[in-house]
From TrEMBL, chain A:
Domain of life: Bacteria
Residue intervals passing through the bilayer: 17-36, 48-71
Protein known as: Cell wall anchor protein
Keywords, comma-separated and alphabetical: Membrane, Transmembrane, Transmembrane helix
Species this chain originates from: Geodermatophilus obscurus
From TrEMBL, chain B:
Family note: Belongs to the sodium:solute symporter (SSF) (TC 2.A.21) family.
GO CC, any one term: plasma membrane
CDD domains xrefs: SLC5sbd_u2 (cd11478)
Kinase in keyword set: no
Alphabetical list of Pfam families matching this protein: SSF
Record keywords: Membrane, Transmembrane, Transmembrane helix
Lineage: Bacteria, Bacillati, Actinomycetota, Actinomycetes, Geodermatophilales
Gene3D superfamilies linked: Sodium/glucose cotransporter
Protein name listed in UniProt: Solute:Na+ symporter, SSS family
Organism: Geodermatophilus obscurus
Primary residence: membrane
Signal peptide boundaries: none
GO molecular function per UniProt: D-glucose:sodium symporter activity
Subcellular location(s) per record: Membrane
Residues spanning the membrane: 13-30, 50-71, 83-104, 125-150, 156-175, 187-205, 241-262, 283-308, 339-363, 384-410, 416-438, 445-464, 476-498
Length: 92, 553
C-alpha cells in the first residue's frame, strides 16, 4: 500500500461506529417511547417515559461523537510503525 | 419459587442482534483486511491514549465487575466502593507512573515470558501452569453468568444454557471477534454505559431519589451499609481497626496491585499506543471512568435490595428464589421497559462474552507456546502450534463448562473470585515485584517463592473452610492474599541468600537497575501539554479518588 498517502480513518474510525450503533439505539428507543408506551411499562419506571428520554439522550450523544470525529479526524499514516517493531532496541 | 425470567420482545432481540451484527462485521472486515483504516485501529502502537484507556477499563468491565460488584452492593452496601477507590485506582496509577515505562521499554509480551527470561524454566513452568488453571477457572465464571442470562431469557435449564453459551463464545472467537478486541471493547464500554446509566436513574427515581435511597437503606439495614469505612461486613473482621488494615493491605495493596500490574490482558492494551507517554497515560486515563463506574454498578445493587422482592427476602435472611448474583438482573426485570431491556441484554451479553473470550485466548497462548512448545513437543512449524491452539480453545471451552458448575455453587461470586486471586495473583505479584527491583534474586528463589506463596494462600483457605477461624465476608480472601504475599517474599529472600544469582548482563531490561534509562523514558515527554502528561494526570486522579473516599466515608 505504498502509493497511499495520509488520510482520515473515515467510516472505520471507532467514534463513527459508536455513533452509528448508539444512534440506532436512540432512534429505536424514541420510536418505542412514542408508540410502544403502555401503562404496564409506566408502572415499571415510575411514570417516566424512560425509552423516550434515554433514546433522546443516546441520539444527542451519537451526534456529538459524529461531530467530534468530523471536526478532529484520526489521521491514518500508512508509513506508521504499525508492527511496533521499529523502536525495538537492536540485538546485542 | 419462580426462577428469574426476562420478558424480552421482538424489539429487544433486534437491539441485541444489531450489536452482534456490528461486532461480526468488524470481525469479518478485520480478517479480510478490507481497509487500512481498520488496520490502523487494530494494529499495535498507533492508537490514541483515550481509545486504549477506555479499552483498558472495558477489558476489566466484564462479568466480575458488573454482576459481582452489584451483588456485593446488594449484600454489603457502600463498602463495595473499596474495590474501585482502594482496590483499583491506586494500582492503576502505580502501573502508569512506575511500571509502564519498564514494560513499554523492555517489550515483555506476557508474564510467563518475563518469568522465563528472569528466572529460567522452574518459575516459568509453575507460573504457566497456574496461569492456565486460573484462566480456565475465571472463564467458568464468565460462562456461568452468560448462561444465567440465556436461562433468564429463554428459561432453559442451566446445563443446556451452559452448552449453548459455550457454543456462542466459540463462534465469537472463530468469527474474528477477538482479532478486533480493542475496537470492540471501546464500543462495548458505551453500550454498557447506555444500559446501566438509565437503569440507575430509573431505579433512583423509583425509590424516591438519593434521599429516598438513603432513607430506605437506613430503615432496612441500618446506616452501616451507607458508609464505606470500616467495612466490617465486607471483610468479616469484628474490629474496625483490623478491618481497615485488612482492606488497605489485603485488597488495596496485594490483591489490587497483583491484579493490575501483572494482568497482561490489561497491560497489552497500553502496549498498543504510539508512544511511551501514551502508554503511561492509558491506565491513568482509564482511572477516571473507573472511579465513576461504581455509581452505575454498586448503586443498582443497593437499589435492587429495596425494589426486588427476592433480594429483600435474601437481606432479611429468608429463603428466596434468587441469589445476590442475580440482583442486577432482577432490577433489570422489574424496572426497564421493553426497548431499554434490549440495550441492557446486549450490554451484559457483550461484557461476558468478551471476558470469556479473553480468558480462553490467554489460555490458548500460554498452553500452546509456553507449555506445549516449551515442554512437550518442540521444534515443529508454526502451523502445528496454531492447530494445537485451536484444539486448546475447544478444550478450554469444554473444561470451562465444568468450572462454571463450581462457580454456580457460590451465592456471591466475588467471594469466589477474590479467593482465586489470592491463590494466583498475590504470590505472582510478590515474585514479580521482587524480581524486577532486586537484581540479586536467584532463579531457585523464583519458583520456590511462587510455590510457597500459593501453598500459603491455599492453607489459609482450607483453615477458613474447616472453621479454624471464621471470616464470613471476603476477609478470608484478603488474609489468604496477605499470607501468600508475605510467605512468598520471605521464602524468596531466604532462598536467594543460599543460591547463586544470575550475572548482571543477563538482566538487562528485566531488572530496573540494570535497564538503561533511555529504554524507559520518553524523549518527547517534556513537550506534552498537561492533559497528556502522565504524572500530572495521575496527580489529578489521585486527588479526585481521595476526595471520593472522604465524601462517601
Amino acid at each position: 500500500m505504498s502509493e497511499q498517502r495520509q488520510h482520515a480513518a473515515g467510516a472505520f474510525d471507532v467514534r463513527n461506529v459508536i455513533a452509528g450503533l448508539i444512534g440506532f439505539y436512540g432512534v429505536v428507543l424514541v420510536l418505542m417511547g412514542l408508540f410502544g408506551n403502555s401503562p404496564a411499562e409506566q408502572a415499571k419506571t415510575g411514570d417516566v417515559n424512560a425509552n423516550l428520554w434515554a433514546g433522546i439522550a443516546m441520539a444527542v450523544f451519537a451526534v456529538t461523537f459524529a461531530v467530534w470525529s468530523w471536526l478532529r479526524p484520526v489521521v491514518v499514516d500508512p508509513g506508521a510503525d504499525v508492527a511496533g517493531d521499529d523502536d525495538r532496541p537492536a540485538p546485542h | 419459587m419462580e426462577a428469574l425470567r426476562l420478558d424480552a420482545s421482538f424489539v429487544d432481540y433486534l437491539l441485541v442482534a444489531a450489536y452482534f451484527g456490528v461486532v461480526m462485521l468488524i470481525g469479518f472486515a478485520a480478517r479480510r483486511r478490507v481497509s487500512d483504516s481498520l488496520d490502523f485501529f487494530l494494529s499495535g502502537r498507533s492508537l490514541p491514549a483515550w481509545v486504549t484507556g477506555l479499552a483498558f477499563i472495558s477489558a476489566n468491565l466484564g462479568a466480575v465487575e458488573i454482576i459481582g460488584m452489584s451483588a456485593n452492593g446488594a449484600q454489603y452496601g457502600m463498602s463495595t466502593m473499596h474495590y474501585f477507590w482502594i482496590g483499583a485506582v491506586p494500582a492503576m496509577l502505580f502501573l502508569g507512573v512506575v511500571m509502564m515505562p519498564f514494560y513499554y521499554g523492555s517489550k515483555v509480551r506476557s508474564v510467563p515470558e518475563f518469568m522465563r527470561r528472569r528466572f529460567g524454566t522452574g518459575a516459568h513452568l509453575v507460573n504457566a501452569l497456574s496461569f492456565a488453571l486460573a484462566q480456565v477457572l475465571i472463564a467458568g465464571i464468565n460462562l456461568f453468568l452468560l448462561a444465567t442470562i440465556v436461562n433468564a431469557l429463554l428459561g432453559w435449564p442451566l446445563w443446556i444454557s451452559l452448552v449453548v453459551a459455550a457454543a456462542v463464545v466459540l463462534s465469537y472467537i472463530t468469527l474474528g471477534g477477538l482479532s478486533a478486541a480493542i475496537y470492540n471493547e471501546v464500543l462495548q464500554f458505551f453500550v454498557i454505559v447506555a444500559a446501566l446509566l438509565p437503569l440507575t436513574l430509573i431505579g433512583l427515581h423509583r425509590v424516591g431519589g438519593i434521599g429516598g435511597l438513603i432513607d430506605e437503606v437506613t430503615a432496612t439495614d441500618g446506616p452501616e451499609q451507607l458508609s464505606s469505612w470500616p467495612a466490617t461486613d465486607l471483610s468479616g473482621f469484628q474490629s474496625p481497626v483490623w478491618s481497615t488494615i485488612g482492606i488497605v493491605f489485603g485488597l488495596g495493596f496485594v490483591l489490587s496491585f497483583g491484579y493490575w500490574t501483572t494482568n497482561f490482558v490489561e497491560v497489552q492494551r497500553a502496549m498498543a499506543t504510539k508512544s511511551m507517554s501514551a502508554a503511561r497515560s492509558t491506565p491513568i486515563i482509564g482511572s477516571f471512568p473507573k472511579m465513576f463506574v461504581p455509581f452505575i454498578v454498586v448503586i443498582p445493587g443497593l437499589i435492587a435490595g429495596i425494589l426486588v422482592p427476592e433480594i429483600q427476602q435474601l437481606k432479611a435472611g429468608q429463603p428466596s428464589g434468587l441469589s445476590y448474583n442475580e440482583a442486577l438482573l432482577g432490577l433489570v426485570r422489574d424496572v426497564l421497559p421493553n426497548g431499554l431491556l434490549g440495550v441492557a441484554i446486549a450490554g451484559l451479553l457483550a461484557a461476558f462474552m468478551a471476558g470469556m473470550a479473553a480468558n480462553i485466548s490467554a489460555f490458548n497462548t500460554v498452553f500452546s507456546y509456553d507449555l506445549w512448545q516449551t515442554y512437550v513437543i518442540k521444534d515443529r512449524p508454526d502451523s502445528y502450534y496454531l492447530a494445537v491452539g485451536r484444539w486448546a480453545t475447544v478444550g478450554a471451552t469444554v473444561v470451562a463448562i465444568g468450572t462454571a458448575l463450581i462457580a454456580a455453587g457460590y451465592q456471591n461470586l466475588m467471594d469466589y473470585l477474590q479467593t482465586l486471586f489470592g491463590f494466583f495473583n498475590a504470590p505472582l505479584f510478590a515474585t514479580f515485584i521482587l524480581g524486577m527491583f532486586w537484581k540479586r534474586m536467584t532463579a531457585t528463589a523464583g519458583w520456590a517463592g511462587l510455590v510457597s506463596g500459593t501453598l500459603a494462600a491455599i492453607t489459609v483457605f482450607v483453615l477458613s473452610e474447616a472453621g479454624v477461624f471464621d471470616l464470613p465476608g471476603q476477609g478470608a480472601a484478603f488474609v489468604a492474599a496477605g499470607a501468600a504475599f508475605v510467605v512468598d517474599i520471605l521464602v524468596s529472600v531466604a532462598v536467594t541468600m543460599v543460591t547463586q544469582p544470575k550475572p548482571a548482563h543477563e538482566l538487562v531490561s528485566l531488572v530496573y537497575s540494570e535497564t538503561p534509562k533511555e529504554q524507559r523514558t520518553d524523549p518527547e515527554a517534556h513537550r506534552l501539554p498537561w492533559y497528556q502528561s502522565p504524572t500530572k494526570l495521575a496527580s489529578i486522579s489521585l486527588v479526585m479518588v481521595i476526595g471520593l473516599n472522604l465524601i462517601f466515608r
